[in-house]
Amino acid sequence: MNRILSREVQRLLAAGVAAAIPFCADAASGEFTFVVGEVSLTKASGQRVAPAKGTAVDPGDRIVTGTNGMAQLTMIDQARLSLRPSTQFLIEAYPDRRDSDQAGVLNLIKGTLRTFTGLIASNNRDKFVMKTRVATVGIRGSGNILYACDAPECDESVTGEARGEGSLTVNHTIDGNHAITNLLAGAPTGTPAQQGGAGTLITGPGQTVIVAGAQPPRYIPTPKFIADVASNMTGSKATEAAAPGSAAAETRNFAPSDNQSLPPSQQYIVPLVGNNGLGFPTIDASGNLSADPQQLRDIVVTVGSPFFSQSLGRDVVSEGSALRRFDTYLGGVSPTIEGGQLAESTNVTLNGTPIGLGRYSGASIGFFGPGSGAAFPGSIHWINAPSGYPTYLADVLTGSVTYTLAAATSPTNQNNVAGTLGSMTLGVNFSNRTLDFDAAVSLSGGSWNMSANNVPISLNTFTGSTDDRLTITNGTGQTSAGNGRLTGSFAGSFVGTGIGAAIVGYGITDTTASNPANWNFVAGVAALRGTTQDGAAPYREGRISDADGSLSDFIRTYATTNRPDEVTADAQGRVTSFSGPYAGLGTHSTYSLGTAQVVESGVDVETGMVWGRWGGGLATINGANGVSQNLDLSSRSLHYIFAGTQSGPVALPLTGTAVYEVIGSTRPTDITGNVGLLNSATLNANFSNRTADATVNIGINGQTWNGSATNMPIYRDQYFGAFSGAPIPGNPNPSPLVITCTPNCGQNAAGSFDGFFTGRSGQRAGMVYNLGGNQGAIAYGRRGGG
């Protein structure tokens, strides 16, 4: 899946569905929702099977992941368990009903396990335990990373901490609290819910504890390999083996003599004459702003925590003006509200944008259509509005705007006690692509202030939680920063053409009171009024390759939308700096050429689209957080392709088909210094179906690689992509990338296509591809022009 779709997937589906789906009741304790690489499942009966998405798991099941294997389980109570490579894991006990009071026991024999616990652990924490050979972990919070090993196989960062002991366990608390008990220190071996005592240590968010041999548990700095898992469960160290300076790395100094791979008849390289390579006129596409051709809707449903998604207008089902169900735009789930009483329903129009919001009490909600739901205590809140248009607008605007509360549902708790949303504001800094969020909520029995600063904006959307930038303070003065029993989140978007309004959903969990009868699980939605912005703000769409494997997953390309002045080039059109995402430094870090060279480049003189690759030195990356990092390109390349400057979105033809021909490219490279040839590439669009097909064939390092994807959905009239391997959790992967090789791809070869259309009617296209780590950029022109 292309990177712009992957961040869309993560925002619309993966996080939201996992947080909100009530698991369908059946006889199993859970099921696999993600499998990649070598993973085996041995049932309690001894039967060994190869698991896939949807395979059920039960007590007694043993799961083993290979060195390239990863898996994610979703349990009956919404708990998520992520198994990293080289892990052995046993489900000793787990209920098969979400309302069960039975015990849950998870046994990590070796390896790494990341968990976000569900309702059973929340309601029966004394009966829920994770254990290893030397420790037990009592659940007092919702998220942790557990690592178990036997010397000498332990990660080198904790080997010294073992102090000669054979087995050790590391637990890192992500959210809430955990009670870590050393089994070899004479502590009780039952569920470690005690408040302390010999051999037990209570942790808070961000704290890491090690248990080694018979030593008492003790705090340690969080090891890097734990921090990597905390930031990305699908992280991989596959690229580290060939890192510069390692035995597997082949040093190569790139030079400008590395020429275009296509024959001269297919090359389209014309030197630029102009100021800093930006002498092309802006493509005027402002006439495309009259209406969103997709008529997409932004929807937030709050069920304990907010679930943000998008849907085509025709796929939204309402009773009167009240939302009942919708199909998510990218597919996969169909959130459905059934039964209950419509307690509130309001319609407002803010700066020309119609917004509907309300809540049901005593209703059921499911995420897989009618009949898939379960009763939800309290109220189910929803808000529905036309999506922000153009989709990239908030990424390229400058200046500041304040959005203020215009309408809201009454916040409710699990007992359906209704309260008041006293205030809510979004202080938006478009120049920094961030916002500040503030809200005040009260109801009988409690009050809460929510505050978050510098929340990132991407694709007109935003989200925050107490795991990152959100701080919640309750009426007794306790804060989420100091108490893991006070948590929450918010999610929303800027809506309507010109994004003159915003919608927000929020949820608060407060279990700080000693008496559970005084706990509160608060939820609500709100609509805010802002100022209509210039939808014709100029921008440059782009794609860059993942030069050093920092993405740590199988997608390996980045999407970025730049302001025109963020892409700089020399007089020949060779790009020397741009804004783009980089893991750990933010979505709009500044890449600069540094001591590297532009070893290939090309320009489309009609639209100003430019492409090329950097190599042969050290590029620099400066994050918005002030952190800088060198990017070593001595034995690898960074490929880029950027559209020309355009004001207004692309509007593709509504019907018909088109063939796109290659007008330029970079030569494919890998991470060990090999440079290959682009043998062929195709791109065909079906505008009637809003899909695209693409193929890429390359030769590199004695191998021929072929990638093919059909029926890739064209997202928002501008973006397309496909990826191989197992789906991203929550994403149906409707158009997988098929990779074949001669003579052999090797095991579990993965990759992606990531592209965009540009020009008033999409007469040009750009794409970055990854085929098993071999990457390159391709520029296309529509046959016949226009």
Can you give a write-up of this model?
The strands form eight sheets. This protein has a 17-stranded mixed sheet that branches. The chain is mainly beta and 786 residues long. Helix content is 5%, strand content 47%. The longest helix is centred in the N-terminal third of the chain and has 18 residues, at 3-20.
Sheet of most strands: 17 strands, mixed
Give me the Rg, rounded.
26 Å
Structural class: mainly beta
The mean pLDDT is 82
Tell me roughly what share of residues is in helical segments.
under 10%
Give the uncertain stretches in residue-range form: 1-26, 187-198, 231-278, 728-732
Spatial gap, N to C terminus: 28 Å
Number of helices: 5
Quick overview:
The chain is mostly beta strands.
Task: Indicate the topology.
Layout: H1 3-20, E1 30-36, E2 39-42, E3 48-49, E4 56-57, E5 62-65, E6 70-75, E7 80-83, E8 87-93, E9 104-116, H2 119-123, E10 128-131, E11 135-139, E12 143-150, H3 156-159, E13 167-175, E14 178-182, E15 200-203, E16 208-212, E17 218-220, H4 224-231, E18 283-284, E19 296-303, E20 305-312, E21 316-319, E22 322-326, E23 336-338, E24 341-350, E25 353-361, E26 364-366, E27 374-375, E28 379-386, H5 393-396, E29 400-408, E30 420-429, E31 434-443, E32 446-456, E33 461-465, E34 470-474, E35 486-495, E36 501-510, E37 520-529, E38 538-545, E39 557-562, E40 568-569, E41 575-582, E42 586-592, E43 597-603, E44 610-615, E45 618-622, E46 628-632, E47 638-642, E48 646-647, E49 657-665, E50 677-686, E51 691-700, E52 703-713, E53 719-723, E54 738-742, E55 751-758, E56 764-771, E57 774-782
Parallel strand pairs: 9-10, 18-48
Antiparallel strand pairs: 1-4, 1-6, 2-3, 2-5, 5-8, 6-7, 7-9, 8-9, 9-12, 10-11, 11-14, 12-13, 13-16, 14-15, 16-17, 19-20, 19-28, 21-22, 23-26, 24-25, 25-28, 26-27, 29-30, 29-37, 30-31, 31-32, 32-34, 33-35, 35-36, 36-37, 38-39, 38-47, 38-48, 40-41, 41-42, 42-45, 43-44, 44-47, 45-46, 49-50, ...
